[in-house]
Amino acid sequence: GDSWGIFTFLCAALCNLPALPALNCTEELGAGQSIQKTYDLTRYLEHQLRTLAGTYLNYLGPPFNEPDFNPPRLARAERVPSATVDLDLWRGLTDNARLAANYRAYSRLLCYLRALDGQAGTAELRHRLGHFCSSLQGLVLSIAGVMSSLGYPLPAGPAGPPASPGTPVAPNDFLKKMDDFWLLKELQTWLWRSAKDFNRLKKKVPPAVVTLRLEARGF
């Protein structure tokens, strides 16, 4: 009867399903998501550095831990990558140029911070520096991922500071502390500016989208 006919029709339809294309939903992890993760990491590092800098400056003692201490930048500190570039000039750079500058700067800053980690006088401070270095290493890798997702090559040359056997050692304890002070100060400025860079960049690059892909079954 009618019920048998409907059952026969359904069986025939089910038998033919393997020949039909299957509708699969896949999420493409593109540049937008990579940029968002890098932005989130810069903000996390900003927050983390505020606590670390306060602890380290207290370890250095006065005048480095005084709120109004603002010394001129010494020539020795120029080996630390400076973030004190005119903002209009910085914004006038291409996305590729800014990303490359961020990648090079954090790679070098990471090397200097690891040196601090080995010199810190307390176990707690070494632990905090080690944790921060691990997070900063993640930022370097994340920036590399953003550049790759946008089709930009990584900057040529060594990621860390130039291997110069003649790099002068601070002649006294005060100048050594001054080097440490400027390292933290420049790192704070880099992270502040990088957060703004990635916030602008994520507005230019659309987020990851969900796409529908047809795959033929049985082929």
Automatic annotation (TrEMBL):
Signal peptide, first to last residue: 1-22
InterPro entries recorded: 4_helix_cytokine-like_core, PRF/CT
Location, primary (coarse class): secreted
Keyword Secreted applies: yes
Recorded GO CC terms: CNTFR-CLCF1 complex; CRLF-CLCF1 complex; extracellular space
Recorded superkingdom: Eukaryota
Location in or out of the cell: Secreted
A biological process term (GO) from this entry: cell surface receptor signaling pathway via JAK-STAT
Gene3D superfamilies for this protein: 1.20.1250.10
GO molecular function: cytokine activity
Keyword rRNA-binding found: no
Keyword vocabulary terms for this entry: Cytokine, Glycoprotein, Secreted, Signal
Entry's family note: Belongs to the IL-6 superfamily.
Quaternary structure and interacting proteins, as annotated: Forms a heteromeric complex with cardiotrophin-like cytokine CRLF1/CLF-1; the CRLF1-CLCF1 complex is a ligand for the ciliary neurotrophic factor receptor/CNTFR. The CRLF1-CLCF1 heterodimer binds SORL1 (via N-terminal ectodomain); within this complex, the interaction is mediated predominantly by the CRLF1 moiety. The tripartite signaling complex formed by CRLF1, CLCF1 and CNTFR also binds SORL1.
Function (record text): In complex with CRLF1, forms a heterodimeric neurotropic cytokine that plays a crucial role during neuronal development. Also stimulates B-cells. Binds to and activates the ILST/gp130 receptor.
Full protein name: Cardiotrophin-like cytokine factor 1
Provenance organism: Calonectris borealis
Lineage: Eukaryota, Metazoa, Chordata, Craniata, Vertebrata
